[in-house]
Write a structure and sequence with these properties.
The complex is a heterodimer. Chain A has a domain at 99-173. Helix content of chain A is 29%, strand content 22%. Chain A is built from 12 helices and 12 strands. In chain A, the strands form 2 sheets. In chain A, strands 6-7-8-3-9-10-12-11 form an 8-stranded mixed sheet, with helices on both faces. Chain A has a 4-stranded antiparallel sheet with strand order 2-1-4-5. Chain A is globular. In chain B, 48% of the residues are buried. The chains are: A alpha/beta, B alpha/beta.
Chain lengths: 334, 340
């Protein structure tokens, strides 16, 4: 028997009530994360990738409702009176957001903010909290961690602020870290450092969910990749299989948009033609059909279900053949 | 060859450092230091570097938004002075800019049509009859926006659509040079690819030159024929596209190349981790030496005591490194890794 997954989302629906209508951002998604695993959730803006995780943890904005089942270590955390969720969230499961400036309080020194995470939960005394703060700052490779405790967020660079945000998330020694676009606002060099910090935390046994729009970033860190489009998972596969050959035309298109150094320099980048559907516009067929180069008549009428295909799952009526070098549109150069 | 359209010689821009606690002597931060740059008609030039390397200050100086402390900026042989209003106005008819934040660079109270019309009238004067509306419509179509969006406000558009509006504003009066300051960095990769292709098409169609500023070498590679790499205010490497990617000379260029994510798990697992220490992590560089020395694996005493000049390595290839001869060109940025 397979070991029980650490985190499991079952058939989650996220909806927002607006003045005019109810907009569905996530249409019944199921995902699981094993202990120590890194799952990347990839999709364009508006694909529902962030709402899926915010919804699963009861962190939706006003007017948002999540339905379904969410299990952390086998225990239901969605619904009920929220006691189970409060016990897990921020302790065994931590979040890192895109903008570290919004995560950190501008008027408190870094050391105080780090210590509060464990002091407020009564997990440690002040001395232990300080020692733990220095330890986690060192683990995210913050130089001179002792003196950084006295610094305020505005005195740090963007990359350092993101490292402090990750350090805060690691204070309670969580089992799962959900990072929502943690490198999007950063330079490529700083992005490489932040990814490295996350990878080291993963190597120490932390399970990781990396939410991003950039398939290029996930290759170096993820074990599995789930690709989302218009509120649904369209493809989910182990990282090597996914990059070796994409099955869903959307994944192929997304991969072709990544600017890469090993493609011929004068090659045009490939964008994904057209716009993603606006949230709430639910069509009877496949949501990607209007932008899809492989569209067949069936795609307009019948929504493809997520089905296993080899070692992966795909929601497509006309998936790309497994042997095709579909993702490698640029080809390899020596 | 005749005079290049834009010629910059020895440009230096500096800012006073505030908060130096009642310091008797004013301290300065040199954001752009001794930079030379030429852009010919229709040429695409890329400027690459991390946050704080002075690439945006350079762009602002070209637009007359910063006063140079030293050096000269010449537009078609005429020197640009920040205080010469008439000359600046005529410069701005020919030089336009697109900034990073697509939503922030549009007026939230103006519709798309009003925004683009405003730019047209400010640069080309009031248009007779329907000529203005026709030109605005044609420009919107050119940047790939549906003409029905003319009456929409920025908050009703996606980030990619807002950036297209910003580009429409910039090109509506047919500039000769378009400066793009991190114009695609805030966008999703899928949208980024669309905008990069759009800029390339516009350049080809109108013979418009492009000065494309970015922190990501992989993006610049798809657009620019000539690439300058900047580090803390100085140009450290300058070369045509083919050579900068095939044989990067400066250790910093190599580190930038190594930082670009590789969309291939097999290659990504094999490449060195953490190509570069963060600038702020490794102590301040000596003002007497190479600014990159504290982060460089090949740095020695000479690097810490004298600033390397920008030397011609080969025809059209320049590098500012004492050790470029010893650091043999590598075919792949991954084949070498830092000493530490």
């Amino acid at each position: 028997m397979e070991p029980r997954p650490l985190f499991e989302i079952r058939d989650l629906v996220v909806e927002f009530s607006t003045a005019r209508a109810i907009v569905r951002a996530v249409h019944g998604v199921s995902l699981e994360v094993a202990r120590g695993e890194c799952l990347a959730v990839v999709g364009e803006s508006g694909s529902g990738k962030s709402q899926l995780f915010l919804g699963s943890l009861g962190l939706l904005a006003a007017g948002g409702v999540a339905r379904g089942s969410v299990l952390f270590d086998g225990r239901e955390v969605l619904g009920g009176d929220g006691a189970a969720r409060r016990e897990v969230l921020g302790t065994r499961l931590s979040f890192v957001f895109q903008d570290p400036m919004n995560t950190l309080t501008p008027h408190l020194a870094v050391g105080r903010q780090l210590a509060e995470v464990v002091l407020d939960r009564g997990l440690m005394g002040p001395d232990a909290a300080r020692a733990r703060s220095i330890q986690v700052l060192r683990s995210v490779r913050m130089p001179e961690p002792e003196s950084r405790l006295r610094h305020y967020p505005h005195e740090l660079s963007g990359g350092q602020r993101q490292r402090v945000a990750i350090a805060m998330a690691l204070m309670t020694d969580p089992e799962l870290l959900v990072a929502d676009e943690p490198t999007t606002a950063l330079d490529v060099t700083v992005q490489a450092q932040v990814i490295e910090v996350l990878r080291e935390a993963r190597d120490r046994g932390l399970a990781l969910v990396l939410i991003t729009h950039d398939l290029g970033v996930v290759a170096g860190i993820a074990d599995r990749v789930a690709v989302m489009y218009a509120g649904r998972v369209v493809e989910c596969a182990p990282v090597r299989e996914l990059f070796a050959a994409t099955a869903h035309p959307y994944t192929a298109a997304l991969l072709a948009t990544v600017p890469r150094l090993d493609a011929p320099p004068d090659r045009r980048l490939k964008g994904v033609e057209g716009q993603p559907p606006s949230p709430g516009a639910d069509v009877p067929g496949c949501a990607f059909a209007p932008r899809c180069p492989r569209v067949v008549p069936r795609c307009w009428e019948e929504r493809p279900a997520l089905q296993s295909l080899g070692g992966r799952s795909v929601a497509c009526h006309a998936p790309l053949p497994a042997s095709a070098e579909s993702g490698r549109s640029g080809g390899e150069e020596p | 060859m005749s005079v290049p359209m834009l010629q910059i010689r020895g440009l230096r821009v500096r800012f006073p450092v505030r908060g130096a606690r009642l310091a008797a002597t004013r301290r300065w931060l040199t954001a752009v230091d001794a930079v030379d740059l030429e852009v010919a008609d229709g040429q695409a030039v890329g400027i690459v570097g991390e946050s704080g390397c002075g690439k945006s200050t350079l762009a602002r100086a070209i637009l007359g938004l910063e006063a140079p402390a030293d050096g000269s900026i010449e537009w078609r042989g005429t020197r640009v002075h920040r205080n010469d209003g008439a000359a600046l106005r005529s410069l701005r008819r020919e030089v336009q800019v697109v900034f990073q934040d697509p939503v922030g660079s549009l007026d939230p109270r103006m519709t798309v049509g009003e925004s683009v019309t405003e730019a047209l009238e400010a640069l080309a004067g009031r248009q007779a009859g329907d000529a203005g509306a026709a030109r605005v419509g044609a420009t919107l179509e050119e940047v790939g926006l549906d003409p029905s969006l003319v009456k929409r406000y920025p908050h009703e558009l996606s980030g990619g659509q807002c950036q297209r509006v910003a580009i429409a504003r910039a090109i509506v009066a047919r500039p000769k040079l378009l400066i793009c300051d991190e114009a695609v960095s805030a966008l999703d990769v899928s949208v980024q690819a669309q905008i990069v292709n759009l800029l390339d098409e516009l350049r080809a169609r109108h013979g418009m030159a492009l000065l494309f500023i970015s922190h990501n070498l992989a993006v610049v590679r798809h657009l620019c024929e000539e690439i300058l790499v900047m580090y803390l205010g100085r140009v450290v490497e300058r070369a045509p596209r083919e050579s900068i990617f095939a044989a990067p000379r400066h250790p910093y260029t190599r580190a930038l190349l190594a930082a670009v994510p590789v969309p291939d798990p097999v290659v990504a697992a094999a490449r060195p981790r953490d190509p570069l220490r963060a600038a702020s992590d490794s102590g301040l560089p000596s003002p007497m030496g190479c600014a990159f020395a504290p982060r460089c694996g090949a740095a020695d005493d000479m690097c810490r005591s004298s600033i390397p000049p920008l030397e011609e390595v080969r025809a059209r290839e320049f590098a500012a490194c004492h050790h470029w001869r010893a650091l043999a060109p590598s075919a792949s940025p991954d084949s070498r890794r830092r000493a530490t």
